[in-house]
Amino acid sequence: MTELGMTSHLEDYLETIYFIIQEQGEAHAAEVAQRMKVTRASVTGALRSLSEKGMIHYIPYKTVTLTELGLELAKTVAERHHVLHSFLRDILGVGEPEAEETACSMEHSVSTQVMDRLIESIRFFQRCSFMNLQWDIKGRVTCDGHKNDVSCDACKILKMEASSP
């Protein structure tokens, strides 16, 4: 649970509301229930809790809107999920269903410091125009981005580790 009293479950609701608003301009409890594959009663309980925490404006049978605090947290959760999902799928080569499920679990289970550092590392991997990680069938990684350039210390380390038995 975060310092705001937010559980991973409530963060998932907040993220879902955020995405619905981004896609459709507004969110309703019925759409949240459908997206999350839960009952409307479950959604009602979660929406009440999010409202009590100052994350959303909620009146039964009306449009659900995010407060400024809710919008900020929803964007953070969505960004963490996106970065982790992309890293798992594009850099680690994890298949789509597993990448999605694992990203969802990871975004809620690591500390803020670890998440911040992990995201910064992932962004580095994504920015490095020389890095070209390849995974073999045994799950070992190599980088062939510097085939003729040995100036990249990170690639030297990766190549040495990959060549070790």
Notes on the structure:
The chain has 165 residues and is mainly alpha-helical. Among the domains are: 8-73, Arc Repressor Mutant, subunit A (Orthogonal Bundle), CATH 1.10.10.10; 130-165, no CATH class. It has seven helices and four strands. Strands 1-2 form a two-stranded antiparallel sheet. The chain has a two-stranded antiparallel ribbon with strand order 3-4. The mean pLDDT is 84.
Could you outline the blueprint of secondary structure elements for this entry?
Layout (H helix, E strand, L loop, with lengths): L7 H17 L4 H8 L3 H13 L3 E2 L7 E2 L1 H24 L4 H14 L2 H16 L5 E3 L5 E3 L9 H11 L2
Antiparallel strand pairs: 1-2, 3-4
Helix pairs in contact: 1-2, 1-4, 2-3, 4-5, 4-6
Number of helices: 7
- Class by helix and strand content? mainly alpha
Strand order of the largest sheet: 1-2
Determine the CATH superfamily of the domain at 8-73: Winged helix-like DNA-binding domain superfamily/Winged helix DNA-binding domain
Strand content: 5-15%
The helix content, as a percent range, equals 55-70%
> Judging by the overall fold, what is the CATH architecture of the domain at 8-73?
Orthogonal Bundle
H/E element order: HHHEEHHHEEH
Low-confidence stretches: none
CATH topology-level fold name of the domain at 8-73? Arc Repressor Mutant, subunit A
Please tell me what the overall shape is.
elongated
User: Roughly what is the average pLDDT, rounded to an integer?
Assistant: 84
The span between the termini is 41 Å
Main beta-sheet annotation: 2 strands, antiparallel
Radius of gyration: 20 Å
Tally of extended strands?
Answer: 4
- In CATH's first tier, which class of the domain at 8-73 applies? Mainly Alpha
